Amino acid sequence: MATARIIDFFNTRNPATPCLVVDLDVVADNFTKFRRALPLSKIFYAVKANPAPEILRLLADMGSSFDCASVAEIEMALEAGATPDRISYGNTIKKERDIAAAYAHGVTMYAVDCEAEVEKVARAAPATRVFCRILTDGEGAEWPLSRKFGCVPEMATDVLKHAVSLGLTAHGISFHVGSQMTTVDAWDLPLSHARTIFDAMAEAGVQLKMVNMGGGFPTRYLKDIPTAEAYGSAIFDALSKHFGNRMPETIIEPGRGMVGNAGVIKSEVVLISNKSANDNVRWVYLDIGKFGGLAETMDEAIRYEIKTPRDGADKTPCVLAGPTCDSADVLYEKNAYPMPVTLTIGDEIFIEGTGAYTTTYSAVAFNGFEPLKAYVI
Q1: Please, what are the domains in the chain?
Q2: Taking the complete model, does pTM exceed 0.85, yes or no?
């Protein structure tokens, strides 16, 4: 996943570690693949995955829309060249004053998942469109997103009817199957729930128009993943199965799948040690950890592919940890990570597939370690 351009950047610029380098050519290629795989769906890039201005400008120029979680992200998308009609305020947990700020920017599409959120939108952004997020089980996702966001499908009709009663437009349904979803047919069940809600609303005299099918599209880490075409085919089949010839407008919100494989982190081995004289497991400490951008190693959910200049040597399982004075800053211990026996202090290592959810999780200089430096090429 380290492209020739990234390798050349590391070799010629030799940036200080830790740092992330993102190749825009890979992002552009991913966007094209999503557009070809699901040509009837609008792409709303999930800004939270990586809000680098260069990435946002590229995607805006290519015709992408944007899924935003905050007013700050909305302003980033606008600055990158997106128009308000290409922005969705997709967070279901919003301060009323933030809804008002988004409305002042011209944003007219908002996510909700309960009547209280509907009421905030109705007061702060009158006569706009809302879509109701429903729960999914997240089965098959390496980074599930269930429970916190969404309501049970049976509640969605009440939420949307309440929106209509307050003068809002009930626009549709949304769901998210879970991040790093490796099961291509995961969209089938929530699409069946969406159709049921569409029918119930039609009986109440309200015609829904849109299904936001969320993100979940994976990037490659240690294991191969299905192609964008495989996901597109499975999703189209599920849409056809549940909606037939009455296809709704559809949205997808790729984040990790758009930028994950475009980035590589360069890090350095700070220390290698054992905890006792007869301890056969080495502890390898890097100059980056959970608080420096690798938060998704929490519960060892995301296992990144790590390359070293000594990969030809034999490997033994190691505990990998970050540099901070916090005992939680351990990346892999339950499932130790194989590292070369010849690895030594000062060696540079490369953590691949790190274009998504790294710089955004490294926003605070915890322990005085600076946020992750990023270069976009």
Answers
A1: 90-254 (3.20.20.10), 261-376 (2.40.37.10)
A2: yes
